[in-house]
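About this split. The held-out portion is used to measure sequence recovery: a designer receives only the C-alpha cells and must propose an amino acid at every position. Recovery is the fraction of positions where the proposal matches the reference. Here is one held-out target exactly as it appears in the evaluation file.
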C-alpha cells in the first residue's frame, strides 16, 4: 500500500456522517447523531467487550457456574478424591488377590509357585548358661 492509500483510509474513517431519526408523519427530526466510521467501530467494540465482561462476571461470581458441565462444586470434588483413593486401594487389593490365587493354582497343579531362597543362613548357636 502506498502512502496515499493509507491516508485515504484514515481520512475515510474520520469522515463525519449524520444519522437523523425523523417522525414519519410530520417529518420532524426527533434526534440527530453525528458519527464517523471510527466512532461507530469504537462504540461497537466497547459494547462487545462490556457484554463479554458482564457475562463472564455473571458466570464466575454467581451460582450459575455450577450449571456449566464439568464445573461441579467443592463437595463433589472432595468426594471424587475420596472415591479415587478407594478405587486405587481396591485395585491394589484385587492385584494382590489375583497373585495369591495364581500361586494357589500353581501349587494345586503341582508346580512350584514360590521361588525358594536357597542361600544359607549362619545362625549363631545359643549359649547355655551353666548353673
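Reference sequence for scoring:
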Amino acid at each position: 500500500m502506498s502512502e496515499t492509500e493509507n491516508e485515504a483510509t484514515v481520512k475515510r474513517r474520520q469522515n463525519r456522517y449524520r444519522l437523523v431519526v425523523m417522525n414519519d408523519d410530520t417529518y420532524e427530526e426527533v434526534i440527530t447523531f453525528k458519527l464517523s466510521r471510527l466512532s461507530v467501530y469504537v462504540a461497537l467494540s466497547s459494547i462487545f467487550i462490556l457484554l463479554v465482561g458482564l457475562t463472564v462476571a455473571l458466570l464466575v461470581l454467581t451460582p450459575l457456574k455450577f450449571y456449566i458441565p464439568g464445573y461441579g462444586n467443592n463437595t463433589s470434588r472432595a468426594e471424587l478424591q475420596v472415591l479415587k483413593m478407594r478405587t486405587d486401594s481396591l485395585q491394589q487389593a484385587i492385584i494382590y488377590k489375583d497373585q495369591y490365587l495364581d500361586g494357589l493354582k500353581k501349587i494345586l497343579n503341582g508346580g512350584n509357585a514360590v521361588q525358594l531362597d536357597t542361600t544359607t543362613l549362619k545362625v549363631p548357636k545359643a549359649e547355655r548358661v551353666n548353673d
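Annotator remark: The longest helix spans residues 74-108.
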